[in-house]
Amino acid sequence: MSATSLGTMDFTGMSTAEKQILVFSFYRDAELRGARLLFNLLSHMKDGEAQLKMTAHLADETRHAFLWTKRISDLGGAPILIDDGYQRRLGLRTGVPKTIIDLLALTVVVEERAQSRYNAHMALPNVDAETMEVLKSVTKDESWHLSWIEKEMHEIARAQGNEEQAEKSLERYRKIDREVYATIAADEAELMRA
What are 118-132's pLDDT values in tens digits? Predict the structure, then answer.
């Protein structure tokens, strides 16, 4: 496995399978980095129900990474290590979240982007059945992830008497997300046309 950055890739001459392996490697990278974020969040979530939901969410993220890894393997490839993917770029722009509200808001934004990317991929013509199965599975989970994390963020903010902070954090991270995603959207769109 070699490390890659989307901006330095030349897509000409790549086979459809090679392009799929690259796209799925980016998805896999995002899921693994999302799992790392959730693992960090786990130590901040003290009540039993939040621990249960967070652990289930973490299990989903690692399962998603496995599904993408398996899909790559089924295509005859190996995952490509991504050194400059969406979540890495986002992390460089956001810095380390300083509060639990910021951590949860960042998680909401990352989940929104994942859901958006997967929905856009499902809408493409000629998506093979095996890939569609993975996309449907991970998208179903993303809906639940978004719902519970956003609710938890608002409940914690309310308990702290700081609901405005939750909205400000979401707004800040969504703005950064749009800027970061714009830096990779054109290259990703070209890959998706495979």
Answer: 999 999 999 999 999
User: pLDDT for 24-45, tens place per residue?
Assistant: 999 999 999 989 989 988 888 8
What's the pTM? 0.87
With residue 103 as reference, give the H or E element that holds it: helix 100-122
- How would you write 117-171 as a 3-class SS string? HHHHHHCCCCCCHHHHHHHHHHHHHHHHHHHHHHHHHHHHHHHCCCHHHHHHHHH
194 falls within a domain: no
Residue 112, domain CATH: 1.20.1260.10
Domain for residue 75, yes or no?
yes
Query: Using an 8 Å Cβ cutoff, are 53 and 104 in contact?
Result: no
Total number of domains in the chain = 1
Provide the domain limits for residue 125: 3-189
64 contact partners, CB below 8 Å, separation of at least 6 = 27, 31, 137, 138, 141
